[in-house]
Amino acid sequence: MTHADLAAGVWRIERSRLVGAAAKLLRDLDEAEDCAQDALIAALEVWPRDGAPDNPAAWLMTTTRHKALDRLRRRAMLQREHEALAADDVAAQVHVVPDFVDQLDAARDQAEIGDELLRLIFIACHPVLSREAQVALTLRLLGGLETAEIARAFLVPEATVAQRIVRAKKALHGQAFELPGADERGERLGGVLAVVYLIFNEGHSAGSGASLLRPALCDEALRLARQLQHLLPGDADVHGLAALLEIQASRLPARLDAQGRPVLLPDQDRRRWDRLLIQRGLAALARAQQLDAGSPYTLQATIAACHARAARAQDTDWRAIVAGYDRLLALNASPVIALNRAVAVSFADGPAAALPLLDALAAEPQLERYPFLAGAQADVLERLGRPAEAREAYLRAAALTDNDVQRQLLQERAARLAN
Fold this sequence. Notes:
Radius of gyration: 24 Å
Number of helices: 20
CATH class of the domain at 3-98: Mainly Alpha
Oligomer: single chain
Helix content: over 70%
Distance between the termini: 48 Å
Shape: globular
Structural class: mainly alpha
Number of strands: 2
CATH architecture of the domain at 3-98: Orthogonal Bundle
CATH topology of the domain at 3-98: Rna Polymerase Sigma Factor, Chain: A
Strand content: under 5%
Mean pLDDT: 84
Low-confidence stretches: 92-111
Largest sheet: 2 strands, parallel
């Protein structure tokens, strides 16, 4: 590995902490990102010449803080604040990585939220921002997702997400980047849960790139969900989200075949599903149902559990799944939920019952360029014995996806119908 590869790799891992440390000092996210970028540039210049430091992450953190301090000097901040910050560096020693909230007064809250990234997410989900802005900004800064990936998750144009992030940064300019007290966490929790959920989704089915899965994102989301369970043991949506992610993650070992090609749910070898994760998920679901069986994440986990409990694909209780989506639609009339319900209907009542539902969803603006709608239409048309129309739909889905593995699978299914 070259010094440049090492610097880039460590920077990707530490990026959220670097931005967070600079934001705490500068109270400006644009400048904080610039400081983190400047630290990477410095590493790319210095490490090949002088050799990599013993602790690359600490080196990047110290450099980022120094860049932030330089900006404070240029802003002519109060000398007293500058001296206090410099004193912190001396006291902590430059070889020790400073904590993002090491200057916060709320020591009790620090102890309660012991995970650094989770603290950062709570801080970034600031109440001055709309929910959409909270989630978009946090996914970009802390979740490691690109603007295009966030846009796909929201089913909105990339420019819309970029504008949300810019406006969010402006709204947070000058705000105190402090950990909320226990009484304020409730109003931020919805955004935090949405961030964790979307990080997992991108890992579970990558929207772009050469790989279908991004396991590191799934692992990070699972870890955060488990931390939230310890932090908020009385919240139904927290346990519901944890249950959903545990159950969904249990299928990851079976989602690709030996050649790395995707395996659809009905065709997966269920012996390869992780039984421990399923048990954890069902236990979390039981707790969530005790607290509030009708909360959104609990309902999604209930649907996922129908698959987890079926020993064979043909044993799946599709009518229960349709009923679960009916309850979800009553809470949130999302076209994506309606699409998932239509797919469930195709298995519960047959493809003929589902096709009109899918065709109606094609008029939804949000789903206009959504590859999974075209893929679902193709599957239903194929099962109805209409190969020419199915082939056209598969090709349309392939043209819409940015994921190389999904595109190849869809093109193969279309080619099979050409004969």
